[in-house]
Specification:
This protein is mainly alpha-helical and 162 residues long. The chain has 2 domains: 1-22 and 125-162; 26-122, DNA Binding (I), subunit A. The chain is 52% helix and 6% strand. It contains 7 helices and 2 strands; from the N terminus they run ααββααααα. The chain has helices at 5-19, 30-39, 82-88, 93-98, 105-118, 126-129, 132-160; strands spanning 58-62, 77-81. The protein has a two-stranded antiparallel sheet with strand order 1-2. The protein is globular, with a radius of gyration of 19 Å. The chain starts with a helix and ends with a helix. This is HNH endonuclease. Residues 31-86 form the HNH nuclease domain.
Length: 162
């Protein structure tokens, strides 16, 4: 479907916004973020590279993805170059880091494990955070959004694919 990449992006952002009902902590004090980066030697936790033009810099990566209710907290954030952040997507960090190979792989894995053990974190779920009534409303919102998104795509396609 040509031209629907905006629908995919819109769906992602609205869905992620709705997830913040369950997992609201999506900001971190800059001091904490700087501390995390320093603890990883200002390098990407996955490939071990420093920030560069090629990898588009070091950004915060959710170990448990935001799409799975992972929050922006010390125990769920590691530094990643933008290239690794983009290519990892929703893959498990352990599966992803093995694809990076290269020297120091065992050390990078150990560093992430050490960081996670020092900062225990469990992502919330709708069932653990919301009451039965709130869970019902939340589920309805998700269904309504999926319906609106499908109708928008349908209208787009009828207008542009005729």
């Amino acid at each position: 479907m040509a031209g629907t990449k905006h629908f995919t992006r819109m769906h992602y952002h609205v869905s992620r916004g709705l997830r913040e009902i369950v997992a609201p902590r999506q900001t971190m004090p800059n001091k904490e973020w700087e501390e995390i980066k320093r603890s990883f030697g200002e390098k990407c936790a996955y490939c071990g590279q420093v920030a560069s033009k090629e990898n588009r810099g070091i950004v915060a990566d959710h170990v448990i993805p935001a799409t799975e209710f992972g929050e922006f907290v010390k125990g769920n954030i590691v530094p990643a170059c933008q290239t690794c952040n983009d290519s990892r997507g929703n893959k498990c960090w352990r599966e992803f880091i093995i694809t990076k190979q290269g020297s120091g792989l065992a050390d990078r894995i150990a560093k992430i494990e050490q960081h996670l053990e020092a900062n225990p974190y469990t992502a919330p779920t709708p069932e653990t955070v919301l009451s039965a009534q709130e869970l019902k409303k939340y589920s309805q919102l998700l269904e309504q959004w999926d319906d609106i998104n499908a109708k928008a795509k349908e209208l787009y396609n009828s207008k542009h694919n005729s």
